Amino acid sequence: MKNSQYYPPFLFGNGHIQTIYPGLFRKIPSPVYTRERIATPDNDFLDLDWSTDGNRKLTILSHGLEGNTSRTYVKAMVQAVNDGGWDALAWNYRSCSGEPNRQLRSYHNGATDDLAWVIDHAKKKGKYKEIALVGFSLGGNLTLVHLGRDRVDPLVKKAVVFSVPCDLAASAKVLTKPSNKLYMKRFLMLLHQKIKEKMAIMPHALNDVGYEKIKTFKDFDDRYTAPIHGFKDARDYWEKCSSRQFIPTIKIPCLIINALDDPFLPRQCFPLAETDTNPKINLKMPESGGHVGFISFNKKNLYWSEQQAVSFLNRHI
After folding, report:
1. Residue 3 clears pLDDT 70, i.e. is over it
2. Distance (Å) of CA 51 to CA 3, 46, 107, 127, 305
3. Catalytic center residues
């Protein structure tokens, strides 16, 4: 659905502006989160942030690379789903809540065991009759991999994902372009900080000697992500954890929204063939929107993406 009826505000039709502006200038009050720490089966922990109002429906939100539950796009979506009649559970990946996790392993595009653990924990609360998943960027890829590859809990009924790098190799390559240099530099700086925090608690397990030579995701994933998480190399990691291959087997209604001007997404990240074979998938490709952008100016301070998510979640399918 290329014509998605999204029209950016005047002077906001550029993908880079759409990507950068919300994080710098959008003001969203922090939800009244209740934090819960849960133990994982491997003696680690996950920090969950709940925003509840006694609803019987729950939305579980998965953030992007080096994000957390305090990111503007997460807070805005929490507010939107709450207003739409859903409780919200925004979870922080390992080491993303402000404290390093205990194990050498971290999060990555295929670490769906943690998402499944969060879903199972929410289900055991015994108060929800329906669960929906919402994911952004890496969190969107993670969501699609889980839905298409794993056993999905029957309580999970719908999903909405935005700005999904569903072909990880292609996305990693496009981020090496000179026009994306600032994004790449920022990601590598944030990831380096995580490495240094982990080195402080397990200095013999890894090091950052020569980190300044890492310039791309391939460099980083070859050195850290792949060996730490059991992959041969970056290519093996990308191949096994790209969600595009799992889209045809998703069995619940799912909305995928990827903007055509997203600077992180090359053409391989628009899964037309895969979605054409699966009637459960609704793919929207607006001309504009950037990466997790979709800016709108209105009295409710809702971006187009949040309006689309709530509308889809509340639609009878």
Report:
1. no
2. 34, 16, 23, 14, 19
3. 137, 262, 291
